[in-house]
């Protein structure tokens, strides 16, 4: 949630910044709500002052010789009217604040000043490449054709069990999938200093509001039960970041806090029908190793570079060609202040595809969650900055390995970095 003080100071300036993310701020609607809020505040102060004056009147009458009971009776009617008016005003104030909070909850985060201008993915800016896409001397297969051998990647079984956009992995592919998870977790905990977490896969609405998925992206979520209910997590970002919700970190010297967490992720993929229908690129259920950092405000820009570098380290260790791009304002996520996407080369598609998205949220999520740290210089609590990124999306990493490491006979060479987690197996899907 953005700071309402910025809106009060200069709503037009905020509107211009939000326009960079293709969001139209209804300034008139905001101002109407703000005027109602101010009106309630002014009237409340007037009535409370009138109540104090009416209470003083009782003492004045007594000092004039009027019996106490009579004095109370004289002022009582006026106090009753004032209290009744205050009660009605309290109800109106609650309504106005609820409407204002709901309005603010729909506003995306402001982009950082250095975010490129643009309206969509064609305006994203490539800033680095690593590795050279392999030149094959045989017809390239995509991961679906490679995984078809022995039904190691079985989409028909997934469809029978759950419907479209699900898959069953068997044998060597299931082992490779598991090896990737263990490799990533060990890399991020051992080399990069992240603390590993295991978290619930179900969260409540408050958690999803805190990280910005609710209310805007309700249709993208899988909701369980009726009423408030639970939701399946769309990413580990939600439970991990919410560990700081409604809390004050009293040990600022320990910041930044770095967490790594492997979870399944569940997304309805609303609005994506017709896109990536083939294969494992866009599934309703997939797995990620997620990186989350909670930092002091002055650390967040550097933390984004660091976190993105940690995700890149996985791709480099697996020798997968990739590029880093910075998203333009019009292609950024709702809660993000700045985002780098890492796109891995997929020979089966002949193009780079996203495998990690690393974002600095600034204090946007922290304000929604009231996630704070105590600044030792002032002794006062301040909002944390939050960051997250995939380190990496496991299914897409598996896809990239299959397609980049395929051989003419349809087998796939296992990256050397995975040998300790693959029991020394050097080749899979051999004929």
What does the secondary structure layout of this molecule look like, with pairings?
Blueprint: H1 4-19, H2 27-63, H3 68-105, E1 125-130, H4 143-147, E2 153-154, H5 155-161, E3 168-169, H6 171-190, E4 195-197, E5 202-203, H7 205-211, E6 223-224, E7 230-232, H8 237-241, E8 247-249, E9 257-266, E10 285-295, H9 300-317, E11 322-326, E12 338-346, E13 351-360, H10 364-369, E14 371-375, E15 380-383, E16 385-393, H11 394-404, E17 412-413, E18 427-428
Parallel strand pairs: 4-9, 8-14
Antiparallel strand pairs: 1-11, 2-3, 5-7, 6-7, 9-10, 10-16, 11-12, 12-13, 13-16, 14-15, 17-18
Sketch the topology as an H/E string, one letter per element.
HHHEHEHEHEEHEEHEEEHEEEHEEEHEE
Mean pLDDT: 94
Most strands sheet: 8 strands, mixed
Tell me the radius of gyration.
28 Å
* Count, helices: 11
Whole-number count of domains:
2
Measure the end-to-end span: 55 Å
Structural class: alpha+beta
> How many individual β-strands?
18
Low-confidence stretches: none
Tell me the strand order in the biggest sheet: 1-11-12-13-16-10-9-4
Can you give the helix content as a percent range? 25-40%
- What is the strand content? 15-25%
In terms of quaternary structure, what is this? single chain
**Which architecture of the largest domain does the CATH hierarchy give at level 2?**
2-Layer Sandwich
Cα shape = elongated
At the first level of CATH, what is the class of the largest domain? Answer: Alpha Beta
Q: Quick one: CATH superfamily of the largest domain?
A: Bira Bifunctional Protein, Domain 2
CATH topology of the largest domain, anyone? BirA Bifunctional Protein, domain 2
């Amino acid at each position: 949630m953005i700071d309402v003080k910025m809106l009060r100071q200069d709503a037009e300036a905020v509107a211009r910044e939000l326009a960079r993310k293709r969001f139209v701020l209804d300034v008139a609607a905001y101002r109407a709500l703000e005027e109602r809020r101010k009106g309630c505040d002014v009237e409340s102060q007037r009535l409370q002052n009138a109540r104090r004056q009416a209470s003083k009147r009782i003492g004045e009458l007594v000092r004039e010789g009027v019996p106490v009971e009579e004095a109370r009776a004289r002022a009582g009617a006026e106090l009753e009217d004032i209290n009744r008016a205050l009660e009605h005003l309290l109800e109106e104030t609650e309504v106005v604040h609820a409407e204002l909070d709901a309005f603010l909850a729909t506003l995306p985060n402001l982009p950082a000043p250095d975010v490129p201008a643009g309206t969509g993915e064609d305006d994203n800016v490539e800033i680095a490449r690593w590795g050279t896409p392999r030149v094959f001397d045989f017809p390239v297969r995509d991961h679906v054709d490679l995984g078809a051998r022995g039904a190691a990647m079985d989409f028909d079984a997934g469809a029978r069990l759950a419907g479209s956009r699900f898959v069953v992995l068997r044998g060597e592919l299931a082992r490779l999938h598991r090896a990737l998870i263990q490799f990533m977790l060990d890399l991020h905990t051992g080399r990069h200093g992240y603390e590993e977490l295991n978290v619930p896969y179900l969260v409540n609405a408050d958690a999803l509001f805190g990280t910005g998925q609710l209310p805007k992206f309700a249709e993208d979520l899988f909701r369980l039960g009726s009423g408030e209910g639970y939701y399946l997590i769309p990413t580990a970002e939600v439970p991990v970041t919410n560990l700081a919700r409604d809390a004050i970190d009293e040990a600022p010297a320990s910041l930044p806090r770095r967490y790594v967490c492997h979870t399944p992720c569940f997304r309805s993929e609303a609005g994506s029908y017709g896109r990536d229908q083939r294969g494992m690129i866009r599934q309703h259920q997939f797995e990620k190793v997620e990186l989350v950092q909670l930092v002091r405000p002055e650390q967040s820009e550097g933390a984004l570079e660091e976190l993105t570098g940690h995700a890149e380290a996985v791709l480099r260790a697996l020798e997968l060609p990739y590029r880093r791009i910075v998203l333009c304002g019009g292609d950024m996520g709702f809660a993000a202040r700045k985002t780098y996407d890492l796109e891995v080369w997929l020979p089966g598609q002949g193009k780079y595809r996203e495998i990690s998205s690393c974002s600095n949220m600034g204090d946007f999520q922290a304000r929604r969650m009231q996630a704070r740290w105590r600044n030792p210089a002032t002794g006062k609590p301040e909002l944390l900055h939050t960051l997250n990124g995939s380190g990496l999306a496991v299914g897409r990493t598996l896809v990239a390995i299959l397609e980049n490491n395929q051989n003419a006979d349809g087998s796939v060479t296992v990256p050397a970095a995975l040998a300790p987690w693959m029991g020394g197996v050097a080749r899979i899907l051999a004929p």
